[in-house]
């Protein structure tokens, strides 16, 4: 019930009822069938949609966090470092990149991400962390004097 | 790039010999060390002189590239208003929430966590050396987000609550990212006492 | 876009064909591994809406090894939808009927039940033995490492190797081997 012509304005009954319903109908403009035309049905579906929108705003953050984890994990896997070891070594080395950034790097800057995994591996080896899962130690990382 | 590398993996044993069913173990073609626990603890004897030289060489190479302006397009990771942004020149980033700078303000973003170019990446611990990377930005717009509806409802419980809110947003244009200082050449630290890092 | 960048783009999003030898492998452990390649979660470019899954060709699915007494105890349930349409099939019976089904169901069940699952399964090609059609074989460019090593059976050692294997003692001449 989205009015496009002035004729429809005249048809509307009481002023208050019309504008109150119109607010809801505007939100339901993209619904299908009676969900957008019959008020008593519309209001139900608009309420439901708004509840979903409120919940979805929180879920979006969770989903993004999961995606970052997944991307970092796969990036680590490619270079033979486990995720916990990677995080631990980076924090030991004072690299304070967060998960969002690390995921961005894994996806868009694979070379820089590899540099990070190399540093993590070198640091882990230096500190005697459990590197047993690593496939092979990185070559060409000059760390002594730079890390620590 | 790392995905590209996967194409190069060899498959000779399978492609040559198709009848691998009986005793032949196809996985033997992949030489991975399964028994990691047998691996000795890593150690190496390093000549400090040679290593110092290696470090110097790397630093020299990067410095040369920066001086010749051959580093290509640079990206940086900056820490701004509690969030990290991966940015490059010309980007617009959105800072959400209350943030004092107003439109037209020119800013120098100090907390640079990482700078990456075509052939090298400088990783800060946690931030790169003061004065090495120069990231400048301009506040181009202060606005509010679209109206977000916070609607709660419980069925059959006579509970309904609706709230509307808009978040303050500050649009920030990244003007320049350049490496101005020299690598591994920390300046004398003065005048940074007032800074909260 | 330069030609190098263009090729890089193709290569990044190209589907890779992997081969996996399932002989002596636990299908449920394998499922977790194969899922990763089928969905593309092993790539840093992964996104649920980004169609980046790979093909996996599984060979020798007839030779899978179930843990413990799962061949006897694992039951697959099916219901036709009609009254009294329920049926329970033991794993060994199912395997006898179709040697690819145990692995296929293991992979299918390891994934979340969303709209993408059936399309992801289309990229899994299972063969009960090593006879893979040539048109599929020609695509393969990578081999997946198996989580378990295939043990070598005694009858696959040569006579000479068995002979030369160090012994602690010889049986006495009059000892009767039962």
Automatic annotation (TrEMBL), chain A:
Task: Name the InterPro entries for this protein.
Answer: Ribosomal_bL20 (IPR005813), Ribosomal_protein_bL20_C (IPR035566)
Organism listed in the record: Nicrophorus vespilloides (Boreal carrion beetle)
Protein name, as recorded: 39S ribosomal protein L20, mitochondrial
Give the top-rank taxon of the lineage listed in the UniProt record for this protein: Eukaryota
Provide this UniProt record's keywords sorted from A to Z: Ribonucleoprotein, Ribosomal protein
Tell me any Pfam family this protein matches.
Ribosomal_L20
Gene name linked to the record = LOC108559829
GO cellular component terms listed in the entry, alphabetical order: ribosome
Q: Belongs to which family? A: Belongs to the bacterial ribosomal protein bL20 family.
Any keyword Ribosomal protein?
yes
TrEMBL record, chain B:
* Entry superkingdom: Eukaryota
GO cellular component terms, A-Z? ribosome
Q: Which Pfam families match?
A: Ribosomal_L21p
Which UniProt keywords are present, listed alphabetically? Ribonucleoprotein, Ribosomal protein
* Family to which this protein belongs: Belongs to the bacterial ribosomal protein bL21 family.
Name the PANTHER family on file: 50S RIBOSOMAL PROTEIN L21, LARGE RIBOSOMAL SUBUNIT PROTEIN BL21M
List, alphabetically, the HAMAP family matched: Ribosomal_bL21
Listed name of the protein: Large ribosomal subunit protein bL21m
Protein's gene: LOC108567283
From TrEMBL, chain C:
Q: Which domain of life is it from?
A: Eukaryota
In its keyword annotation, does this UniProt entry include Ribonucleoprotein?
yes
One Gene Ontology term, aspect cellular component: ribosome
Database matches in Pfam families: Ribosomal_L13
InterPro entries according to UniProt: Ribosomal_uL13, Ribosomal_uL13_bac-type, Ribosomal_uL13_sf
Protein keywords: Ribonucleoprotein, Ribosomal protein
**HAMAP family with a match to the protein in the record:** Ribosomal_uL13
The UniProt similarity line reads: Belongs to the universal ribosomal protein uL13 family.
Q: What is this protein called?
A: 39S ribosomal protein L13, mitochondrial
């Amino acid at each position: 019930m989205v009015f496009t012509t002035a004729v429809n304005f005249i048809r509307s009954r009481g002023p208050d009822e019309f504008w109150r319903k119109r607010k809801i109908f505007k939100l339901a403009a993209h619904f299908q069938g009676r969900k957008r035309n019959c008020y008593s049905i519309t209001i139900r579906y608009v309420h439901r949609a708004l509840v979903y929108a409120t919940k979805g705003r929180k879920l979006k953050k969770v989903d993004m966090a999961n995606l970052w984890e997944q991307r970092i994990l796969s990036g680590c896997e490619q270079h033979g470092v486990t995720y916990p070891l990677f995080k631990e070594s980076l924090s030991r080395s004072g690299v304070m990149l967060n998960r969002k950034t690390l995921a961005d790097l894994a996806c868009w800057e694979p070379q820089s991400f590899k540099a990070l995994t190399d540093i993590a591996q070198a640091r882990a080896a230096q500190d005697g962390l459990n590197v047993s899962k690593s496939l092979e130690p990185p070559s060409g990382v000059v760390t002594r004097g730079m890390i620590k | 790039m790392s995905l590209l590398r996967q194409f190069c993996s060899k498959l000779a044993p399978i492609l040559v010999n198709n009848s691998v069913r009986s005793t032949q173990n196809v996985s033997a073609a992949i030489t991975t060390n399964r028994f990691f626990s047998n691996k000795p603890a890593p150690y190496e004897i390093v000549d400090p002189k040679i290593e110092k030289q290696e470090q110097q060489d790397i630093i020299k190479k990067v410095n040369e590239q920066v001086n010749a302006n051959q580093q290509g397009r640079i990206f940086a990771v900056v820490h701004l208003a509690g969030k990290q942004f991966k940015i490059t020149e010309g980007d617009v980033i959105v800072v959400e929430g209350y943030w004092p700078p107003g439109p037209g303000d020119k800013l120098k973003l100090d907390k640079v966590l990482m700078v990456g170019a075509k052939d090298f990446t400088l990783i800060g611990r946690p931030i790169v050396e003061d004065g090495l990377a120069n990231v400048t930005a301009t506040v181009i717009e202060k606005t509010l987000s679209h109206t977000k509806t916070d609607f709660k409802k419980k069925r059959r419980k006579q509970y309904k609550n609706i709230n509307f809110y808009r978040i303050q947003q500050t649009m920030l244009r990244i003007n320049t990212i350049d490496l101005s200082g020299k690598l591994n050449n920390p300046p004398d630290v003065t005048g940074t006492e007032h800074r909260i890092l | 876009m330069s030609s190098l960048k263009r090729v890089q783009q193709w290569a990044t999003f190209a589907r890779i064909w992997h081969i996996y030898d399932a002989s002596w492998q636990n299908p449920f452990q394998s499922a977790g591994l194969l899922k990763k390649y089928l969905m593309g979660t092993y790539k840093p470019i992964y996104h649920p809406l980004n169609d980046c899954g790979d093909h996996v060709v599984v060979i020798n699915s007839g030779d899978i090894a179930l843990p413990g007494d799962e061949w006897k105890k694992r039951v697959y349930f099916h219901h036709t939808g009609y009254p009294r349409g329920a049926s329970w099939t033991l794993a060994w019976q199912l395997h006898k009927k179709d040697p690819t089904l145990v692995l296929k169901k293991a992979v299918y069940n390891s994934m979340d039940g969303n709209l993408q699952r059936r399309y992801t399964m289309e990229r899994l090609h299972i063969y009960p033995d090593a006879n893979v059609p040539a048109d599929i074989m020609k695509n393969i460019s990578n081999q997946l490492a198996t989580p378990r090593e295939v043990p070598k059976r005694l009858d696959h050692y040569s006579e000479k190797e068995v002979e030369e294997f160090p012994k602690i003692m010889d049986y006495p001449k009059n000892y009767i081997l039962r």
